[in-house]
Amino acid sequence: MSVALSPLLKAWVRAQRDLGLDTVFFDRKVEFPAPVTEPVKPAAPAPARPVPPRPQAAPQRMASETPVARPQPRAPMDRAPLRTPDPAARPVAAPPVPAAPAPVRAPAMRLATVPTFASREDLGKHAQACSRCALKERETTVWQGGATSSPWLVLTLYGWGEDLKNGALLSGAYAKTFLELVAKVGLPEPAMAAVLCCPPRNPADTSVQGRIEAARCRPYWTQLLRFSGAKAVLVLDHKATQLAVGKAVDWAEFRSRRFLLENVPALATHHPARLSRSQEMATDVETDLRQILSIVEGAA
Question: What's residue 96's pLDDT?
Fold first, then answer.
């Protein structure tokens, strides 16, 4: 039985067939015969291309089976242990630092000026009453010895024990060998003076205190040198030499070498006390005395 369809229904039926439906429902069931289509010849298959095998993915595990990475413990750091503050302890305030007092300067020390003396006697009186020396336990001042005037002068460090008793320099038994060499060489009796007129019990010698005392005592022996009229000076021992020249000297090189002392030619030799204990020094001392003799004769 044929059914007449309107154009709208035809379009509806065509749309249903395109969707693959063989039956379209209307008010009553209408069956349509399947459309006759020509068989389609299959195309020649294309040559198969080798397909590289895909890498098999690792089987996925369930969330419950997935291992959880645990954090690795860190190496302990070298830190000072933290101290737990004690709630009972309270910070103690540091005591206030007192302000440093202003430096107090000592008043300038005024030293009595040594006057220029008119004679040896005036110099001797002033030396006996001198208070310029700061050495404690002052002993007897020994400032002279030997001849009043002479072409040469012996300058020693200070008077020894026997000199203090006799009141004159080089008056002890220790100076006997030295004075014998003086006479042997042919020199006249020398005038004498001391670097330190006041011999200390604890001699400072070439220390700082010794240098200060030597500077204070210098005007005495320099004026004695002028009063004696000496043309040459012989300094006894290296300590007296260092205080006289005002600097350290190498005794081995400086001994027996000429230098100027207060513009007067000078020479240094061994002390008579060492000479009395070491007779082998007699040759050196005699050589130095002969140099003094040549200076004196050359100045005559």
Answer: 66
pLDDT attached to residue 118: 93
Which tens digits make up the pLDDT trace of 34-71?
A: 544 555 555 556 565 665 666 555 555 554 455 555 65
Residue 153 lies in a domain: yes
Q: Which of 198, 69, 82, 78 is nearest to 141 (CA)?
A: 198
Integer CA distances (angstroms), 268 to 141, 167, 188, 254, in order: 24, 24, 18, 7
Q: Tell the residue number behind the tokens 């004196």, with chain if given.
A: 296
Does 154 lie in the same domain as 9? no
The tokens describing 280, both together, are 């082998």
The residue type of 282 is: A
Domain that holds residue 225: 135-299
Helices 176-185 + 282-299 axis angle, to 10: 50
Report the pLDDT value the prediction gives residue 111, as an integer from 0 to 100.
Answer: 47
156/164 Cα distance (integer angstroms): 14
* Cβ atoms of residues 271 and 158 within 8 Å: no
| Residue 249 within any structural domain of the chain | yes
Has residue 159 been placed in a domain?
A: yes
Q: How many domains does the chain have?
A: 2
